[in-house]
Design brief:
With about 110 residues, the chain is mainly alpha-helical. The chain has 4 helices and no strands. The longest helix has 14 residues.
Length: about 110
Amino acid sequence: VLYRLAGSPEVETVKTDFTDVDTGRYYAEAVAWAVETGVTNGVGEDRFAPHSAISRQDLVTMLYRYAQATGQDVTGQADLSGYVDAAGKSWRAIPAITCCPEEVPPVLRRR
């Protein structure tokens, strides 16, 4: 979705280091673009998990990185103490979650 939102830009190559992304699949260019722009690093050293559900914190992190890559202001900081699951969030997701929680669709917020 973010790749299409960005206008489906050309990528240098559809080859990535992910062993579970076949370069012939319809999403290969989008994954390669996301890696090139820093939107994703995958779920492990060599995995992207294209057929797995994405966690809320990983989705917010990708949205945050997309916002950074497109020059949007992500400097806001918010208090997460009202979120019942805030303590269980990964350290890498904290900047993404705190930058603009009121901008996040309600389905992604859990208070």
